[in-house]
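Example 9 (inverse folding). The structure is encoded as follows.
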């Protein structure tokens, strides 16, 4: 599997959840990580590394580097590999992926590609071209929802039979039992605060501006604290001006930058409801899965694969605002979990290899 694990950002939480689950079941399984992912100048979020400890295990190899074509060729040519399962989410990786896939296919390897964003969040001709190039060299694809499968196959020479729907796994660190009172205190919020959480990188398509306006409208009848946690990939001054215009300066609490895994429990435990007011989306959300992990209700629109993840799917702002109120009043319940993503991946590997995958007779030690 090609992807990211801590200390890299990107989709490391997703990859770690998948790695941990598969590593307990498979014997001949290697995670091909990156010793250098891409230049910081190409990552809008600044430094692509976190301060977290790297995952250490014998089958985790950091053999790839964005500047080293030899590392791409070696992976594609590796005679011990039958199936290459790559996670696709970041455009600077397009050229290494195409090389690995082309060389691997020439050596008879099966290429499986998990598509995290069917279309670029911020579309340009270059990104669309790179998307098409990477898709072209994959034999099979994984997406996270039926809608994503339709998006991937419409207008592309990809058969629906070669696209497998496996929902996003629940992700998150081990819970320590932080109480709501402790979490609110840690965030310097009043114990009786009604808290709406907007979590993750602030990007234009995520609709933070509309959420600010909704909170302002609800503020007329109740006191709401809006927590915005994550690095802004766009000019924050525009949001700052909107917050001031809506007279919310004292009620919006910004925690800029990358939020370490150790701090996640405070944010999601303090929140009464997690808002995902995305205007458009072509994937499923890691934020929604974190909220599931910490049992915090979620509200979102029917875009991308969000409808399969959030607890309330709002048709418009009126329904979104009502769902926020229901969450703050503890009137929202969590949806049931979907079928286990790990088991679905194992069955898919069996089908693609046309044989039973080699399952470990004894549990394989987990990475740490």
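The amino acid assigned to each position is listed next.
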């Amino acid at each position: 599997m090609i992807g990211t694990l801590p200390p890299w950002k990107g989709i490391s939480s997703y990859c770690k959840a998948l790695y941990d689950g598969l590593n307990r079941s498979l014997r001949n399984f290697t995670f091909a990580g990156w010793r250098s992912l891409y230049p910081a100048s190409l990552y809008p979020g600044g430094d692509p590394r976190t301060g977290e400890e790297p995952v250490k295990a014998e089958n985790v190899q950091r053999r790839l580097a964005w500047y080293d074509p030899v590392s791409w060729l070696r992976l594609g040519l590796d005679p011990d590999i039958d199936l290459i399962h790559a996670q696709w989410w970041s455009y600077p990786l397009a050229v290494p992926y195409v090389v690995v896939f082309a060389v691997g296919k020439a050596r008879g390897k099966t290429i499986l590609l998990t598509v995290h964003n069917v279309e670029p969040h911020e579309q340009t001709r270059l990104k669309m071209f790179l998307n098409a190039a990477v898709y072209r060299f994959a034999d099979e694809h994984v997406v996270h929802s039926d809608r994503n499968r339709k998006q991937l196959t419409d207008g592309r020479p990809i058969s629906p039979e070669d696209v497998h729907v496996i929902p996003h796994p629940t992700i998150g660190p081990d819970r320590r039992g932080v109480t709501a009172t402790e979490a609110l205190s840690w965030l310097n919020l009043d114990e009786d605060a009604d808290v709406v959480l907007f979590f993750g990188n602030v990007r234009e398509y995520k609709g933070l501006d509309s959420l600010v306006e909704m909170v302002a409208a609800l503020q007329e009848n109740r006191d709401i604290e809006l927590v915005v946690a994550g690095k802004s990939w766009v000019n924050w001054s525009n949001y700052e001006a909107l917050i001031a215009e809506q007279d919310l300066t004292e009620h919006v609490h910004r925690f800029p930058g990358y939020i370490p895994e150790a701090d996640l429990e405070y944010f999601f435990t303090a929140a009464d409801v997690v808002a995902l007011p995305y205007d458009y989306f072509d994937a499923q959300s890691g934020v929604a899965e974190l909220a599931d992990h910490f049992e915090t209700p979620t509200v979102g629109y029917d875009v991308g694969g969000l409808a399969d993840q959030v607890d309330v799917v709002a048709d418009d702002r009126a329904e979104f605002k009502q769902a926020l109120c229901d969450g703050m009043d503890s009137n929202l319940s969590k949806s049931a979990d979907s079928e286990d993503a790990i088991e679905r991946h194992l069955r898919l590997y069996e089908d693609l290899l046309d044989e039973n995958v080699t399952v470990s007779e004894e549990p394989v030690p987990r990475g740490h």
